[in-house]
């Protein structure tokens, strides 16, 4: 996902082709459609579609999440109103009166990880020392855990419906074996002399006070006295590992599965991030799906519908027998309860069976003669499929 300071140049709603007032369902529907059309597995070697797919995934990661979408909307509203050009009404307080000039600022320093006033370098730090905002709070500048990791897999329709396990290979930061992730050969640390254990260094610039993470301890407040040679005191090393992902029953195309603590390892023994696996589902040759219900179209003969019969119908497991009442019209849907997609809390959806007449393309002499006799008897009985239909009336 793009960092917040890159959101100013992004239009995630346009990337997904939805309006800013789109519902969660509208956003999900648009994402699934575009993801299927641009997925690299369906268009190998097509770099244009691959880049398009990445933009779609990035957009959905933000506005497809309620909390992130609110952050994004608030951020764009502030940018659009000039709120970052010298903090809106405070622009005149800086040299030039037009915002930040002569110095580069990372917007993440303004907003941090939790909005205004929530992290070092934010509004709380700028105004805190001068106007009593947050001067008594002790904050940490270093990350609280490792980075989240995102990946994608493609599974079969029936695997998605019934659940499965899927092995994946990941390469990223893992705990250092030599120092058990601490970054120290013996585990010894001391209070940082540069920031006196606070993790920050502050400085006054005119009417405002600024704070930034301590460069000596990277904001941890402590320094390692005997750094581990294998990880160079970071506590993590780059390593490949295999993970078996458990896909729950009933997962749908485009859904994400979260594996807590399976992301990259945190520095110096901090907890690992999470792993997010986006699941893509291949279409099935027999079934389609609507929620927890399955749909299947079964070819039948005219005689089976007219006279009634019992036929075998496929399911996700063994076939079941379904009774066709006499006089059933072609296209009618018969429901088989509990034979759809399993539900995570138990039970399953239904199987909807559409019966459709299959018309033979060739007939032998005996079948042709018998059918002509039937057609004659049908007319003699007075039956006409188009009687009173569209003003046509019966035909003799």
Automatic annotation (TrEMBL):
Pfam families recorded: DnaJ, DnaJ_C, DnaJ_CXXCXGXG
Residues reported in the UniProt entry to bind Zn(2+) 2: 192, 195, 214, 217
Predominant localisation class: cytoplasm
Cofactor: Zn(2+)
Residues of the CR-type domain: 163-240
InterPro entries: DnaJ, DnaJ_C, DnaJ_domain, HSP40/DnaJ_pept-bd, HSP_DnaJ_Cys-rich_dom, HSP_DnaJ_Cys-rich_dom_sf, J_dom_sf
Keywords tagged on the record: Chaperone, Cytoplasm, DNA replication, Metal-binding, Repeat, Stress response, Zinc, Zinc-finger
Cofactor note: Binds 2 Zn(2+) ions per monomer.
Domain J: from-to ranges: 11-76
Localization (cell): Cytoplasm
Binding site for Zn(2+) 1: 176, 179, 228, 231
Entry keyword Cytoplasm: yes
Zinc finger (CR-type): 163-240
Record note on domains: The J domain is necessary and sufficient to stimulate DnaK ATPase activity. Zinc center 1 plays an important role in the autonomous, DnaK-independent chaperone activity of DnaJ. Zinc center 2 is essential for interaction with DnaK and for DnaJ activity.
HAMAP family, sorted: DnaJ
Family assignment from sequence similarity: Belongs to the DnaJ family.
Described purpose of this protein according to its UniProt entry: Participates actively in the response to hyperosmotic and heat shock by preventing the aggregation of stress-denatured proteins and by disaggregating proteins, also in an autonomous, DnaK-independent fashion. Unfolded proteins bind initially to DnaJ; upon interaction with the DnaJ-bound protein, DnaK hydrolyzes its bound ATP, resulting in the formation of a stable complex. GrpE releases ADP from DnaK; ATP binding to DnaK triggers the release of the substrate protein, thus completing the reaction cycle.
Subunit architecture: Homodimer.
Name of protein: Chaperone protein DnaJ
